[in-house]
Amino acid sequence: MPGGLMVIICPPSITYMTLHDPGFVGGEEPWDNSSLDFERRFRLGSEVTSLSLSRSSSSEKNDPLDNLNLNFRLTSMNNILTMYPDRDNPWRMLAVSSTDSFSMNLTDFRDNALLKLQVGGPFTGGMIDLTNQEYVLIQVEQTEQLGQRRRRTQQVIHNWTIPLHSERSDQILMTKTFEIDPIVITVQAFLQDNEVVPLSMTHQSLYVSVETQVAIAGIILAGVYVLIISEIVHRTLAAMLGSLAALAALAVIGDRPSLVTVVEWIDYETLALLFGMMVLVAIFSETGFFDYCAVKAYQLSRGRVWPMIIILCLIAAILSAFLDNVTTMMLFTPVTIRLCEVLNLDPRHVLIAEVIFTNIGGAATAVGDPPNVIIVSNQDLRKEGIDFASFTGYMFLGICLVLLTSFPFLRMLYWNKKLYNKESIEIVELKHEILVWRQTAQRINPASREETAVKCLLMQKVLNLESLLRKMMKTFQRQISQEDKNWEQNIQELQKKHRITDKVLLVKCVSVLAVVIFMFFVNSFVPSIHLDLGWIAILGALWLLVLADIQDFEIILHRVEWATLLFFAALFVLMEALAQLQLIDYIGEQTALLIKAVPEDQRLAIAIILVMWVSALASSLIDNIPFTATMIPVLINLSQDADVNLPIKPLIFALAMGACLGGNGTLIGASANVVCAGIAEQHGYGFSFMEFFRLGFPMMIMTCMIGMCYLLATHIGLGWNM
């Protein structure tokens, strides 16, 4: 549920500045020509809006006071970024060995709250074995006042141990924050030979305590959810505003990142995967294959709705266990929409059910969901026996139990839901046609007289169709039955109407898509293939563009969900900024403290329950990828603590179960949710945050309950801890 270059068009009264150039002085002169052009376009657009068209539902919810409040907040954040420059601490290059150490005196720390120390070198993650592993020891020494009257001081040393990689190849950046007033930093290497380890180090002072940073991060996250739930602005703009607020908070505490650093926070592999699959699906839709699949699914279900929904959800769950969840939903969403249009069903409820089961199915294997990939890729967990086979075997059995109980519960949730549209299929198609024409007209930028005239003609057509719709609504008296009893006759009519329109292009699309999906499998099961999912999707899209001989390339680009891509980019920046504000680390530390406070005879059961539910709730609110990466070392340290005495396997399986199933809690809890909502919105069937929440959150609670019972039964009852 993602930094990047975000272009924000604001009123000319706001001062603009370049983030990466600290010597830049903001001014308004360069924007004069742009403002005049903006006014000219606004006057041309007003010619169209003067046709007394009905406003969309999203614009009706915008209140002038809300817009004024948002503008005020945006101006405040802009002023904050103007006042606080980028973090520009010089990096110190050093080399240490078993005989040579490095020491540095700090004289610039006065009354600062925190010391943030960053060290780069050939490190490895996980726990350190001091007996047989090489490591670097960093000692931060401080002076503590023991008494005001005697003015006695005591030297306190804080140790930070970082394990070294055996091959000395990868350069990894490690960060740690100390709540002290340091005076000396000493770096010493403990090696098995006399070689030298090159390191880079920088430090900076922060002005706010960890608790205050966590409170600020919580307020920003709550504000983003308020904007998304209330639909004051689009969710993409809400994520962009949230990321901007988080960057402003980092600037205030003295940790403002540079623009280059913010850009590096974006997960470009995910964006490349999304873009490549969007292009593939856009070309695929030109063949009529989705219409053909919809008719076949209707034929298999024999006109019955619930068998069809169960078949779709089950296939989606099985595919997502081996494919990426995003890929599964990008292939299933167009088919589902066409199928629902054929059956006169509301696609929203069917799509929400599909994406819920996609997230459930993704938890079944080690490659189905990103948190699972992170877990099985951890070297320390592999040493504990959590490899691909053992992880998949345990999770697959648990997810099968979850799926068996999910179908009846889904039927209960949909008991009072009207899956069929209340109007006839003619009225539904007319409404959808009006919506598509309106969206097409709104996407035209009236930069010239001809474009303005075309936009006016399109809006006039919308008015004519709305007049026709009102006449049809007045004469409509038909009641819709819950099952189509004339399904055999309808199938013959649908087969004549919905056929494969371009068989040659279909062969090309199927061939390229088969190769792409095969490479996805190869990438998951063959570690020696150094080709990420994003590269595979991009290369497949380019290959299909060449084979399909697309003449009008802009038509394909118009079908790409740019708002969804921007949402993910902003979400990556937001989550990384919240991590910099210590939010994720704080959640992990508090979870560990709660587990330690439990009596020893009940500690394992409480730890499983606590890790499971904390992971589920956190993953429904924040991205589960950084949360999983943060919780793994916390749980490893907890299991190796002699005072706690907990096995590592139950904790890791509880983390995986909660992180994967928790994505169903909210609309932005999983990437597949956002992708499905974006494609549905492009087709005119968008669903809101609350529409998803009313179905997804109860399913998350139920599935997590079943998963928790499975964990307790296997680890507490049967003792599967070894």
TrEMBL record:
GO cellular component: melanosome membrane
Pfam families: CitMHS
Taxonomic superkingdom: Eukaryota
Keywords annotated in UniProt: Membrane, Transmembrane, Transmembrane helix, Transport
Name by which UniProt lists this protein: OCA2 melanosomal transmembrane protein
Occurrences of domain Citrate transporter-like (ranges): 225-658
Membrane topology: Multi-pass membrane protein
Listed InterPro entries: Cit_transptr-like_dom, Diverse_Ion_Transporter
GO aspect biological process, one term: melanocyte differentiation
Gene: OCA2
Keyword Transmembrane: yes
Species annotation: Sparus aurata (Gilthead sea bream)
Positions of transmembrane segments: 206-229, 236-253, 273-293, 305-323, 391-414, 505-527, 533-550, 562-584, 604-622, 651-680, 692-713
Compartments, record wording: Membrane
